[in-house]
Each structure stands twice: as structure tokens, then as C-alpha cells.
Amino acid sequence: MSFLHPLLLLGLPLIALPIIIHLINQRRYQTIQWGAMMFLLAANRMSRGYSRLRQWLIMAMRMLAIAGLIFAVSRPLASGWLGLTAGGRPDTTIVLLDRSPSMQQSGAGVTQSKLDAARRQLAQTLSMLDPGRLVLIENTTRAPIELESPDGLTQSASTESVSASSDLPAMLGAAHDYIQANQSGRTEIWICSDLRENDWNSDSGRWQTLRETFSEFPQGVRFYLLAYPQTPESNLTLRVTDVRRQATDEGADLLVSLRLAREGGAQTTQTVPIQFEIDGARSQLSVELSGAEFTLKEHRIPIDKTRQRGWGRVSIPADANLADNQYYFVFDQPAPRKTIVIADEPQSAQPLRLAAAVSTDPKTPATADAVDVEQLASVEWDQVALVLWQAPLPEGDAAQTIQTFVDRGGRVVFFPPRNPTPAELYGVHWESWVNSPEEVPVDNWRGDQDLLAQTQSGAALAVGKLEIRSYCKLAGELTSLATLRGGAPLLARAPSNQGGVYFCATTPAASDSSLANNGVVLYVLIQRAITEGASVLGTTRQLVAGEAAKDDTTTWHGLAAPDGALSTEYAFQQGAYEEGERLLAVNRSAAEDQAPVLVDQRVADLFRGLDFSRVDDTAGGASSLVQEIWRIFLIAMIAALILEAVLCLSRPVRATGGTA
Amino acid sequence: MFPDHKPRSFLDATALARLASVPFFARQPMLGNVSGRHASPHRGSSVEFAEYRKYVPGDDLRRLDWRAYGRTDRFYVKEFEADTNLRLCVVLDTSGSMNFGSGGVTKIEYGRRLAASLGYLALEQGDAVGLACVAKGIVRNIPPRRNPAHLSTIFDVLEETRPSGETQLAEVLHEIAETVAQRALVVIISDLFVEPNILESSLQHLRFRRHDVAAFHLLDPAEVTFNFRRPMRFVDLEGGPAIFAEPNEIADRYFKALDEYLTRLREVMLASAVDYHRVSIDESFEQVLMRFLIGRTKASGVR
Predict the structure, then answer these.
(1) Quick one: pLDDT band at residue A621, thresholds 50, 70, 90?
(2) Nearest CA of chain B to the CA of A16: how many Å?
(3) DSSP 3-state helix, strand, coil percentages of chain B (rounded to 5)?
(4) Percent of chain B whose predicted confidence (pLDDT) is above 90
(5) Whole-number pLDDT of residue A659
(6) Other beta carbons within 10 Å of A339
(7) Are B78 and B49 in contact, with CB atoms under 8 Å apart?
(8) Which residues on chain B are in Cβ contact (under 8 Å) with A652?
(9) Chain B residues with CB inside 8 Å of A41's CB?
């Protein structure tokens, strides 16, 4: 139990008042000359039982009444989780509000979401507790916003739900910076979250730093975690995995691939109506969901032939979480698939150019130009999707050009030169060639993702059938996508910001490998790289909410933005937007779907050594976090007084010695 | 009434004048020396016929009833009741506890009034009056006399006596029962703060000695109501240890003890045929005495 006016508790010694009065009264005795001593002596000899008990009871009731009064005026608060806030009111209260899509989950049987519950509870609690300076740090901009009153938590647009995930360590970092910059005194940090792992990044090394820096504050920082860890009984999440516009003989089709996932234990077969909305035109498709996941591949939706580009939305009916029931996408004509081939050897250059120049879609032209290293500067990089480099690793200006190209989203695949040089790019360099007397088979490869992933029909690529006769060893930190027997990588990805740099340890030359003869793997590999590289060239972009925050969203124009979304927050709100010529679709991150909830012990570990208390609330819970309970004490006081009066009145009937 | 014209604080002339109109009777035959108002166990020469008795030689011939002889031819002696005076022995408790009085009048003062008035009334109708002031023992003892001047001595003793010492009423009453000649009226004026069981034997002793015993039990209203508010230190008037008590706390047990004592005392008094009067000292003594005298009038003539 804590108190709003703990100073008044200093009056608690007043409880001893009845005892003191009793003692003073005893000191103020009167002396009387008395004759009838025999009755007094007899009375003293008698058992005191009830009489003595009654005296003590009366005394206790009086003390109880005073205690009740003192406690009542100290304005006690119910629920002990606030702990000993008796230290007085804080100088600053910082609210870290996680308004990620998972916080939109509503409680069982109620429509109130976790976020709404958290805002209401916080506003109610803080307005009761006198928070001092109130600062809000929410998960999108993480900029401290000073609120005038706790009511701002329920009224401010900065506390509404967004589609961006949270980054709790970064938010705590922002709180830390705020405390440091403002030299605030005793600070309380209230964290409202549903404890999703993707929001908390509990494995991040930043937590260790945060623990250390917060414990260094001399004024003391107290953490309160208002947690909503409940997972829904049943919740469907919808995610569009791919959208393509394909021209047909009659007109055009939109090929939509999507994934429907079910969270929760229910495994019954369920019919889910999926609604597609493309530029305002709606169509519906009902699917049977029997397992935990349903995947729809390339659902064809006919569109107007003249419509080259546009936006769309896929939605399912409302369920436990409203934030993951729709997905926005934008489509456009495919960007030109242009490839630059830089090759020392013609026998390598030819297969590469062929593999790059044949488009997967006959309606989309693909070109592959062979250029020399010296001609790099004259290339129109704005239209290039892929660079195939079979030459010594670039140095100087050439390396700079390639890096710029990769940073803007382009893809590069390096093949080994016949004579490796010590030049290094992305921390990787070629070592020496290994000529094996017999063919080296491919031991394993990543079939689940990246360039060698299985086909959309689920069949594996025939990587195992490749015959590698000689390969060049790689040195540096690489993520291997395919590994030869003996452990040397065949295809590896180098670390870079955009993740678009690949190294292939052999060349398509017939003397080195069967990449060219067994052309499927090389073709798929290169086409996939082109597709990825071309995806950033088009005038449409699929963005993950929050990750495009650096863009200036004021020029964005909402095509299908949620009601009430601020234009400054477009980058954090799912929807379809238009920026000049570009079409943008913003959606929640993939990690937001089915993210696990942190276990209690893990949360406690994250705050180990800090002043931390946690309470679990539920969305739609009617009870307030803290309640004023002075009425109970007042009632107790009145009850004590009444009981005292009754005890005082109930003296035994006096034995009246009537005179004869 | 005041031979030396000295006013006595315990005498109220007008009250005495009113009380004198009611005769003061004994409840049983008394043995006196002279003729008086009270019945005697012996035959005598009053006007009230008692019985005929056969003549036996030696009887005074003058008392032979000749008319009876004329009718029956037998000798009868006609006998009459004898009237005699009584000896009133007032036993006044002068122990320390008698010095208590919450309403201005102490018990001893009230006892003086009762004793003096009774003495006056008795002497007025020719009875002999004696006084015994008792505490731990008999402090002062004046044997009964009929002489009107004797009253002055009694008043003097009453005036001089001071309450002090313990109450040893039972032993004192035994002594008085033996020393006072048989068939006297013994009036005990006391607060009777003695265990009733101890008192019982001495009262039975008095009864055995054919004394007519009356008792005025003096109680102060404060002792009955016990309505103190503040904690009190009760100092024993008879020199015992003081008791510190919280009246609120002890009151119920005090009343219980008082109640038990009064009930038992009344039983003892009834069993010992004592004319028992419980007197609250805020009552008018005149009314108390009037009640006492009238009660005796009704009971008169008992032999």
C-alpha cells in the first residue's frame, strides 16, 4: 500500500493518544477517605475477565479510530505493486509507450485493445499520483514529448496505434538521453508493452549498457513495467508475399501471393473470406484454413488492361487483433532488367550474359551488357539491377562505384578471376585456385532463402547435381549459401548494409564447373538476383513501417491511409501512399506476426540491478491499477467509534442497594 | 431538655417534639424496675386483666376474687398484666469508617442524631437509657439509668466521641450481650462493615439473652451509587492499606460485592429477628425514626 500524502503518516504516533490520555488520567487521580473498603477488597479479589477485556477493547477501538483517520487523510492507494513510493513525488515521469501492432490486440470478450487499456490505466494512475514533469517517448520517433497532463496520454495523437514495431532498448536509450540532458531529479520510467520479443530485442547487447548507465544516475531511476503479456486465443494474420502484374491476351492480371497464419490453439477448419481491394474495386475469395498456416500462390485478379500501376489492399474480417488483418501493396510494370557483365574470360562472360539476358517474363525485356572495368563510369547505373563481375576485385574508383551501387539496393555477384589479386572488397578477397582431380560435389545449400531457395512449387534446385572441377578459395567473413565437400563455400554472401553482395567460388567456364552446362541453377540464381536488384528500380516500393523513417513523409500523399493518421506518421502507419511518381505501401514488419512473448524471468533479468517493479494488466480489465481506498479507512474509523460507544454503554446493570 | 443550655448539634427540638407523639415500644416483654409503658413477663398491678389462678396458701387474701368465689364456691386469684419500664442500650459504632460522609453529614453525626433522639424519647417515657460507644472494643460505656440528668451525660459522651480505629462489632456485641442485664432493648447504630456471617453469631447471642435488638445500618449514597469518574485512591479510614482503582473498571465488581453483602446481611438480620433498618444518610433522620417507632407500635403487645 502506498500513500498520496505519506508525510501525514508522521502523525501515526497520535495513535498512542488514548493510551497517553489514559495514563494522564491515571496520574490525575483523586484521593478519597473511604469507609467501605471491604467491597473494594472483594471487588479486587473477583475475576476481572470481561471487565478488563472491555477496557482494552475500548482502548483498542479508540486507537483504531485515530489510525483510521490518519490513514484516510494520507489517501492510501490500493494495490501494493507500486511498492514504496513513499519517497515523495518524482521530479520527472517518463512514459515509454509501445504502440506496435501487437498492442492492438483486444482482451477476451472486450473490444478494448491493450494499447487503449494501457493508456487509460496510465492516465488514471498518473493523474492520481502527481507525476511531476510528464514526458512521453513513443516507439516511432522516440522523441521526448512533454505532456501537460496525464490526460494527454489518452487524447494525444502520438499515443494512437501505429504499424511500426518498437525498439525498447532504443526507447530506453532515448529516456536515458533525456534524463541526462535535462538533469532531471528523481525519475520514474513507466514502460507499457506487451513484451513481444521483436519489440524488446532481449538478446541485444544494448541492455547491458542500459543497465549500467541507468544505475549510474545518482538521483535514482525507478522502472515500472505495465505488461500485457496475454496472447490471443485465436488470431489470424495476413501477409502478402508477392504481387506481380502480368499482361495476358485479354488484358492484365494481378498475381497476388499471400500467407494466412493462425495464432493460438484452435485447429478446427475455418473458412476465411479474404477481400481484395485494388484501386477501390473489391473482390472476395473464401479459403479453408485447416492448419496453422495457409499459403495462396499467385491468385489471379483481372485488372483493367490500361492500368499499369496502382495500389491494393487485402483484408480479412476483424478478429482479436485488428492491426494484422490487412495488408497493403502497390504494383507497377516491372522495371527493366538490366545487367552489366564484367568478365575477363569470354567462356565465362558468354554464359553469364545469356543467363541474364533471357527474361522470365516475355513481357518484360531483359538486357545484359558486357563492359570493361574502365567503362564503369559511363554506365547508367540508375537502370542497372545486377552486376556480374568475373575479374579481379575492384579497387579505387571502381570499388567506390560498386559500393554506391550496392548501397542503393543493387546486386553484385563476384566470380573468381583466373589470377587472384590481394584486392579486398567487403572484407573478402580471393585466395588461390584449387584444382581437384575429380569433381567436387556440393554438400549442402540453403534451400529456405536467398538465391538458392526452393522454387515456388516447393521443388529444390538441382544444386547437388553441379559438377565443380576447380574453385577459388575465399578469405573473409561470409555467410555460406552453398558449401562444397570439404567445407569450402561455393556461393556466399558478404556482409553489407543492403545484403546484395554475393561471391561464387567458381566460374561458368566449362573447365571449372558445369554451371553453364547445367544451366538451371545459374539461370535461377542470376534471375533472382536481377529481380531483387530491379525491385528498387521501379516506381513502387514495399516498405516496412518504421524502417523508412528517414524519408521525409510530408510529401507523401495518402492513397489508403487509416483514418486520423498524421501525415508526419505515414512512415509508421500501414497504408498505400503516393510520393510524386512513386507508389509506396507501408506494412508492419514480418517479425510482428507471431512474435513470442518474453518469459517473466527474462524480463526480470533485463532489469536486474535496477529499481524495477512489474504489474500484469489485461486489456478490458475494469479495475484500476491504483485505487484510492480512504473510504474504507473512514468506514473502519466510524465502525471503531460505534463499537467503542457500544462498549462504553454496555456497562452491567448496576446493583442498586435500595435503602430499607 | 438542655439543663446547662448548651445547644447540641445533633438535637432537633422540633423533630423530637413531633416524634414524642408516637410511643416508643419494645417488641417483647422487658424487665424493668419500675412501672412503665412496656409489657413485663411478670404479673403485676396494671388495669389490664390477665387471668384467674387458683388460690394457693400464701397468696395475698386481698387479691382473692370474691365474686368468683360467690359464683363457683372456689378460691380464685385475679391476676393483671404488669407494666414496666425498659432498659435501652444504644450501641454506637465509632470506628474510623463512621467518619465517612459524602453529602456533608458523616455517618457518625447521623448516628449521634439517632442515638440522642432515641435516648431522649426513651427517657421521656421513663425508660432507662445507656450508651456504648464501640470501635475495636467498647470505648465508652454508660450503663442505663432512668434519671433525666443522665441524658446530659449521654449527650456529652456523644459529643465527645470521635471515630477512630477498626470495627470489631461482633466481639463487642458478644460482650454487650453478656454485660447488659436480660431483656433489654439493644439498638445498634453502625455501618456494619463486618462479614455478615461473623455478625450472625453475636446477634444470635443477643437474641439468646432475650434482648430486643434493632439495627440502623448507615450507608452513604456514595457507597451505594459509586459513581466516580476519575481514577481514585481510596484511603482506608480505619488505617488499612490504600487501594488505587479505576472506578469504571471496578464498578461492576464493586456492585456485585455490595449486592452480595446486602443480601446476606438481610438474611442474617431476619434469621436473628433483628429489627433491621437500612438507612441512607441523606435521608431525614426524623423519617427514619418515625418509621422505626410506627413499626414498633404495630408490633406492640407481643409477650
Answers:
(1) low
(2) 20
(3) 40, 25, 35
(4) 43
(5) 36
(6) 27
(7) yes
(8) 252, 255
(9) 243
Residue B199 main-chain phi, psi, to 5 deg: -70, -30
The rounded distance, in Å, linking the Cα atoms of A46 and A42 is 6
DSSP state of B292: H
A42 CB within 8 Å of a chain B CB: yes
Interface test with B, best of A22, A24, A25, A33 (most B CBs within 10 A): A33
Residues within 8 A of A (CB atoms), B 7-66 only = none
Let me know how long chain A is: 660
Query: pLDDT by residue (tens digit) across A436-467?
Result: 888 888 888 887 778 888 777 778 888 888 88
Average pLDDT over residues A250-271: 81
Assess contact for A423 and A469: CB atoms under 8 A.
no
Placement of cell 376474687 in the chain: B65
Cβ of A39 under 8 Å from any chain B Cβ?
Answer: yes
pLDDT single digits (tens) A179-220: 888 888 888 888 988 888 888 888 888 899 888 888 888 888
Which residue type is seen at A29? Y
Question: For residues B255 and A542, which has the higher predicted lDDT (pLDDT)?
Answer: B255
Distance from the Cα of B104 to chain A's closest Cα (Å) equals: 14
- Using the Cα atoms of residue B64, residue B67, residue B70 and residue B76 in order, give the sign of their dihedral: negative
Are B244 and A29 an interchain contact pair (Cβ–Cβ within 8 Å)?
yes
Residue carrying the nine cell digits 528500380:
A537
Give one word for B67, left, alpha or beta, with left for phi > 0 and alpha for psi -120 to 50. Answer: alpha
For residue A51, the chain B residues in CB contact (below 8 A) are 249-250, 252-253
Distance, CA of A583 to CA of A310 (rounded, Å): 7
Maximum average pLDDT range among A150-154, B25-29, B83-87: A150-154
What value does the mean pLDDT take over residues A648-654? Answer: 62
Q: What is the pLDDT of residue A383?
A: 81
Nearest to A635 by CA among A73, A65, A6, A75: A65
Q: Tell me what the pLDDT averaged over chain A comes to.
A: 82
Provide, as residue numbers in chain B, all residues whose Cβ is less than 8 Å from the Cβ of A644. Answer: none
CB contact under 8 A, A28 and B276: no
Cell of A569: 506518421
Q: What is the ipTM of this complex?
A: 0.82
> Which residues in chain A have their CB less than 8 angstroms from residue B98's CB?
35
Among candidates B107, B240, B262 on the partner chain, residue whose Cβ is nearest the Cβ of A657: B262
Residues A598 and A199: their CA atoms lie apart, in Å, by 10
Helix (H, G, I), strand (E, B) or coil at B73: coil
C-alpha cell at A394: 575492384
- Dist. CA B99–CA B108, nearest whole Å: 6
